[in-house]
Amino acid sequence: MTTVPTKPTAAPRRAARSDGDATRQHILDIAGQVFAERGFADATSKEICARAEVNMASVNYHFGSRGELYEAVLVEAHHHLLQPEAMLAIAQAAGDPRDKLRAVLARIVDHVTGPRAHWGSRVVMRELLSPTEHAPVLVHKAIAPKAKILLGIASDILGLPATHPGVQRALFFMMSPCLAMLVAPRELRTGVLPAIASDADVLLEDLLAYALAGMEAIARRYRQQ
């Protein structure tokens, strides 16, 4: 009696792919830490691979080059600050747009006042303060899609079309304090202006009040035209 050979399953291939994804994510996390500490110019693939405990070919295999690794880190870093899926869920939910804005600002305040900052905020701030040739990737792949979501929320609050120039300016003014808090050294937030870091809930409500008051003033100005 002959036996029909069984068809090999795809489990080993799936396992290999899963291992590859895990290795890629591990390299990404370690690279984020190194770029946060040293900046793009001074971070080397050699140090990243040594700290990640992978061979030197891993960066090129998983990312293509050190520059492309840095671009992936930039996008990952910004997504850690504001996850696009979470923002989209907030924007699409029913409810007052002011509450949606509060939910977005709450995530930023959590990063600012948290006990241990993720490397993502430092990487993003380094790039914004001292842009490299890779800045357009951060803008187009990470910032622009989220700005579009925020423009929708701002539009609903202002009662103006999302394409209105006043909405764009209002969004920029609204997010500027958030950038300032992220850039501010911890010593400033804990020593010189300790109230910034002492009570996250009160900070959130003050930030929201500040943003909404400014947006109301802008909306009133355009209603009078």
UniProtKB/TrEMBL annotation:
<dbReference type="InterPro" id="IPR009057">
    <property type="entry name" value="Homeodomain-like_sf"/>
</dbReference>
<dbReference type="Pfam" id="PF09209">
    <property type="entry name" value="CecR_C"/>
</dbReference>
<feature type="compositionally biased region" description="Low complexity">
    <location>
        <begin position="1"/>
        <end position="13"/>
    </location>
</feature>
<keyword id="KW-0238">DNA-binding</keyword>
<feature type="domain" description="HTH tetR-type">
    <location>
        <begin position="21"/>
        <end position="81"/>
    </location>
</feature>
<dbReference type="GO" id="GO:0000976">
    <property type="term" value="F:transcription cis-regulatory region binding"/>
</dbReference>
<feature type="DNA-binding region" description="H-T-H motif">
    <location>
        <begin position="44"/>
        <end position="63"/>
    </location>
</feature>
<dbReference type="InterPro" id="IPR001647">
    <property type="entry name" value="HTH_TetR"/>
</dbReference>
<feature type="region of interest" description="Disordered">
    <location>
        <begin position="1"/>
        <end position="22"/>
    </location>
</feature>
<keyword id="KW-0804">Transcription</keyword>
<protein>
    <submittedName>
        <fullName>DUF1956 domain-containing protein</fullName>
    </submittedName>
</protein>
<keyword id="KW-0805">Transcription regulation</keyword>
<dbReference type="InterPro" id="IPR050109">
    <property type="entry name" value="HTH-type_TetR-like_transc_reg"/>
</dbReference>
<dbReference type="GO" id="GO:0003700">
    <property type="term" value="F:DNA-binding transcription factor activity"/>
</dbReference>
<dbReference type="InterPro" id="IPR036271">
    <property type="entry name" value="Tet_transcr_reg_TetR-rel_C_sf"/>
</dbReference>
<dbReference type="InterPro" id="IPR015292">
    <property type="entry name" value="Tscrpt_reg_YbiH_C"/>
</dbReference>
<dbReference type="Pfam" id="PF00440">
    <property type="entry name" value="TetR_N"/>
</dbReference>
